[in-house]
Amino acid sequence: MGKRNRACEECHRLKIKCDVSTSSGKACERCTRNDLECVPAAPRLQRDRINQLEAQVQELKNALSDRSSNDTTPTRSPSSLLENQDGMILSFLDARIPFQKQQQLLCHFGQHADTAWPIIRVSMNLDQIRVRSPILLLSILVYSVSQDMQGTDLETHDELVRETMRMLGEEVIARGQKSLELVQALLVAAFWSKYTRKGEQASCYQIVQLAVDMAIDLGIAGFSLQPSPAAYFCRLEDATSLEARRTWLSCYVALSTSSVSMRRPNTVP
């Protein structure tokens, strides 16, 4: 019998001599006798590092357990989260454009936008569109009218443009939301594209592509353009409604115009 250069894990734990045969790879006597796996112990520095990591993991587990036990915040349902998001959008808008002014701008959009870009037909009832389509209302009031018509100063106007694009990005990219309202809001932002003094928020070409991709995922682009399997459950219930068909036609016209402008092939046949 010969003494191993490094004791196995079991012998090291019990702090006893680890005897192993001279043949390489054999188990020590104690592990053989007790039918145990004979694994050479790790070097001291490595064992110290392992112990340190295990202590850190345990500390994190304890911290998470304490946080969970002390957290009394009730879990909110998806509908309450959506209502909260809509409330934030309207609060942001109301703090910068008065309610009466919002009604005037909405009527102006309905009376003049149809001749320029008949994307959507919105209700002229401000209360109704605030409840049903707050993000679309925000896009219309920020993008489709000038700063002078809004009655805002330059700083407020720039803030409206930046925050509206941020909110659209939050809904579309961060939260992965898909709806006809969002497609329409993106088309409004693309057609009446605005830039702030602090740089571009997104190009009209990028916004159009987002709107087209979302429209395909919603199933309003027809049977020839099928969405990815991941978007199957996002399909619009009434994909052939007049509003859906008008929205898709607007997407197609916008994408075709972008392709001509950029001298690139249209991605949608």
UniProtKB/TrEMBL annotation:
Keyword DNA-binding: yes
Superkingdom of source: Eukaryota
Signal sequence segment: none
SMART domains for this protein: GAL4 (SM00066)
Domain Zn(2)-C6 fungal-type positions: 7-39
Record keywords, A-Z: DNA-binding, Metal-binding, Nucleus, Transcription, Transcription regulation
PANTHER family: FINGER DOMAIN PROTEIN, PUTATIVE-RELATED, TRANSCRIPTION FACTOR PBCR-RELATED
Protein name according to UniProt: Zn(2)-C6 fungal-type domain-containing protein
